[in-house]
What we know:
By secondary structure, the chain is α+β, with helices and mostly antiparallel strands. The chain folds into two domains: about 1-115, 3-Layer(aba) Sandwich (L-fuculose-1-phosphate Aldolase), CATH 3.40.225.10; about 115-270, Class II aldolase/adducin N-terminal domain (L-fuculose-1-phosphate Aldolase, 3-Layer(aba) Sandwich), CATH 3.40.225. About 40% of the residues lie in helices and about 15% in strands. It contains eleven helices and nine strands. Strands 2-5-4-3-1-6-9-8-7 form a nine-stranded mixed beta sheet, with helices on both faces. Strand 8 (about 205) and strand 9 (about 210-215) form a beta hairpin.
Amino acid sequence: MKNILDAKFMTEAIRTLSNMYRLGWDERNGGNLSVLLDTAEVEEYLDTENVIREIPFSFDATALAGKIFLVTGTGKYFKNVEYDPAANLGIIRIKECGNIAELLWGYTDGGRFTSELPAHLMSHIARLECDESHRVVLHTHPTYTIAMTLAHSLDEREFTRTLWQMQTESIVVFPEGVAVLPWMVCGTNEIGVATAEKLRGARLCVWGEHGIYGVGRDLDEAFGLIETVEKAAQLYMIAASVGIKNKITDDELRRLAATFGLDYRRDYLG
Length: 270
């Protein structure tokens, strides 16, 4: 069989996680990632009949039974992934019962998947119902996005509109806007349920005073959505500190949307 570390899904995940750490978005063991993998592709690298061990979790994911995911480990530092992928990442398959993960590779130090796996699985289920090409759920702690949740109203319309007004790219990249949740205890099924519901109508969900969830058909889409929000939030925080004198107007946003043929949240404009 081929070397799993040479798989495209593996090299892309390692590169993305390393990049986010270097950007300062994932301090210590902050952040997590899950990628829905193609079973046929995985079988080029692993004997999928060889289950290393079973790991239970507290959520009924029977809707994902038989599906295989690459998932970051709990308590793991993104800065270490590129040096020891097998200890910091795992490849799991959801068992038919729906609340057990079969470990096919990784977590070599006896570890397990991120504590937010239920939230990830809920989000995967919600997004697959909207888009059968969905594959990635990415959670991270971008600095300026979190800062903006401290300084700005958490009203979704107002939050989105401000991000759109900061730079031309915002409405083009996330025309459906961003969903926003107030602070909630992380690692719980409750925040997972709330996030999954928000992601039915958006590809981004900001967690107040915590971070952001981004989803996509691949890692580039999920990461690109988050970095665009982070850039707009950074512009807002810098400009707000000295007083905002200019911003993209609602009429200009409408012109942008018309030019690019965007299906955007028209009710978010004045």
